[in-house]
Design goal:
By secondary structure, the protein is mostly helical. Helices cover 64% and strands 3% of the residues.
């Protein structure tokens, strides 16, 4: 991986850093698009309920191990202590692209090795109810995507940092701000994902396992993320947290 840029760094070295960031960005988008089909059971060869032998021996244990790997990788790499460690070995501007590409690889591994557990938990047959649930499924993904643009989409996914590396300049993180859906809820990306994971007219045991594990990971992960945000932004984030709910949207309150 390219080291931190210096005024004397070669153009090819800086270009390698930019291409690394573009690769990470592309990997994320491809993986997320596959995940939509994976959870919806459409347009992909391996989905949450199809593509492998159902109820294979040890299927639940394999799925739990995959979900645990996903949670551990995300939680560990998102912590400031890990970021401080990894930036001693790679350029600071390439830390975020590294997180993005490894997260995409782990999610891809989960979907590739997932073992279906097709036993039905619930089945909705009414056409209007099925349409409503599919609408919620689509709305959840749409909210998660839109929310990335209301913060800093290209910074969140590491592309902005890799471009700074290419230019040979340090990346200056964006200032804390609240706008659009972030005035109603602190973590709209997570809200969208939770809705997308649970909104389905046919909930299998495997899908329930996936949705429950992801919900648990989200709640635990947000606890640590909130601590990091307070440490990073101080009273500005404390006031924001006082006024704005974590996951259940509410009409914005006035600032302190």
């Amino acid at each position: 991986m390219p080291p931190s840029p210096t005024p004397s760094a070669s153009a090819s070295l800086r270009l390698a850093g930019l291409l690394y960031g573009i690769m990470a960005y592309a990997a994320f988008n491809i993986t997320v698009m596959y995940c939509v089909g994976f959870l919806g059971n459409f347009l992909v060869p391996l989905s949450i309920d199809a593509g492998r032998v159902p109820d294979a021996p040890g299927a639940a244990l394999i799925d739990l191990a995959l979900l645990a790997l996903f949670g551990i990788q995300h939680s560990v790499m998102a912590r400031p202590a890990f970021k401080s460690w990894i930036t001693r070995h790679v350029a600071a501007e390439l830390e975020r692209p590294t997180y993005v590409i490894l997260s995409s690889m782990v999610l891809a591994l989960v979907m590739w090795q997932w073992r279906p557990l097709p036993a039905s938990v619930w089945q909705v047959d009414a056409d209007w109810a099925r349409a409503a649930l599919w609408t919620l499924f689509a709305a959840g993904w749409a909210l998660a995507l839109a929310a990335t643009f209301f913060t800093s989409h290209f910074e969140l996914l590491g592309l902005k940092q890799s471009f700074a590396y290419f230019r040979g300049r340090p990346h200056a993180p964006g200032a804390f701000r609240e706008q659009a859906v972030y005035r109603w809820v602190r973590h709209p990306i997570m809200v969208g994902q939770i809705v997308a994971f649970w909104a389905t007219p046919a909930m299998s045991l495997g899908h329930l396992l996936f949705a429950t594990a992801m919900l648990g990971y989200t709640l635990v992960g947000l606890y640590f993320e909130e601590r990091d945000l307070v440490a990073a932004h101080g009273n500005a984030y404390r006031d924001y947290r006082r006024r704005t709910p974590m996951l259940v949207p509410r009409k914005p309150r006035s600032r302190h």
